[in-house]
Amino acid sequence: MKLKKKIVLAYSGGLDTSVILKWLQENYNAEVIAYTADIGQEINKKKILNNAKSFGVKKVIIENLKDTFVKEYIFPMIRGHALYEGVYLLGTSIARPLIAKRQIHIAKKYKAYAVSHGSTGKGNDQVRFELGYHYFGPKIKVIAPWRIWKLNSRTDLIKYAKKNKISIPKDKKGASPFSVDDNLFHTSTEGKVLENPKNPAPEFIFQRTTSLEKAPNKASYVTIGFKNGDPISINGKKLSPGNLLQKLNIVAGKNGIGRVDLVENRFIGIKSRGVYETPGGTLLMTAHRAIESVTLNKETMHKKDEIMPKYAELIYNGYWYSKARFKLQKIVDQKRNKINGSIKLKLYKGNTTIVSRQTKSSAYSMKKVSFEENKTFNKSNVEKFINFHKKKLR
């Protein structure tokens, strides 16, 4: 008996990927392997297993990648201070390269001829997944259902689900859900009422941040310790990368920190509106910039600021594994061994304030900066400095 070909599907257990799983079985004479990367999203392992097995799936793989995700993907991005279009912390963008890498690994391990994802034909994620697939498995076929099937809308998808007795989740108001992506770094919400930019985001869509009105009336304080450019501790206690980010998510979310309502320019040329929650990531970004301010010299900091927009755009566009991103990462990490110390933050009703910066670095000189008379700074050179720059005006 000839063995069936195999397809590895990036499977969440939700509506979209459950429909895709069924559709792949109907349209391809292949065995589907359901692969779930646990990167800190709200996950029901029992539901994933039961849903997949109800379709006759023999192989379901759920892989815990939380620490890998934070250490090897989020932390390097934080070191680069990556913000797309000035505000977006790239929570969805940074997750796709890791999932794609592991999906191809699984495909090779089980000798699958194809991989599949649930990204829509109008979105960025299809690009991010498929650039990752190509980098690690250029000869493995990619099946992108949203670009080839006859289900042209969310309504068609729900009709197909009802026809095939696939459970349809409901949002908090009992309606069909928004399009939601979440992981340890962020939650994004798109679609429905959010598609019209004049509509305010309804409060019930927020999952990990408290509204400013309901946030505590008393400030919280948190101290983040850094070693070689990466956060390693909270309030003096060392934590694993995943646990550290999770703890920051809780304290920041409770204080209403990390919400962004953004109309962004997608890579494929469409404008879209999304609501993002990145509570812990917002604290890390603020703290990392603060620790750099007292540990790095001006040239290094300004060079990083100069390349940041391009660095962020490469990540957004799915070029995490590109030569261009690798090159910029080397610039980002050039002096990361100097970035050591701790930053104390005050959190209050959506605001993050730097309370103190502590480091053993000599980059910041109290003697030179002091307004008291001292001999460490030669003021007579200042006039020469100004005259030199006057010539550049002409």
Question: Could you describe the 3D structure shown?
Answer:
There is one protein chain. The chain has 394 residues and is an alpha/beta fold. The chain folds into 2 domains: 5-84 and 92-178, Rossmann fold (3-Layer(aba) Sandwich), CATH 3.40.50.620; 187-358, Argininosuccinate synthetase, chain A, domain 2. 39% of the residues lie in helices and 20% in strands. The strands form 3 sheets. Strands 3-2-1-4-5 form a 5-stranded parallel beta sheet, sandwiched between helices. Strand 1, helix 1 (15-27) and strand 2 (30-38) form a beta-alpha-beta unit. Helix 10 (298-316) packs antiparallel against helix 11. The radius of gyration is 24 Å and the shape is elongated. The termini are far apart. The mean pLDDT is 93.
Strand order of the largest sheet: 3-2-1-4-5
Order of helices and strands: EHEHEHHEHEHHEEEEEHEEHHHEEHH
Q: What characterizes the major β-sheet?
A: 5 strands, parallel
Shape summary: elongated
Keywords for this structure?
394 residues; alpha/beta; 2 domains; five-stranded parallel beta sheet; 13 helices; 14 strands; elongated
Please sum up the structure shown.
The protein is of the alpha/beta class. The chain has helices at 15-27, 45-54, 66-79, 95-109, 125-136, 145-148, 154-163, 241-254, 279-293, 298-316, 323-332, 366-369, 380-391; strands at 5-10, 30-38, 60-64, 114-116, 141-143, 179-182, 187-190, 220-227, 230-234, 237-238, 259-265, 271-277, 341-348, 351-358. The chain is 39% helix and 20% strand.
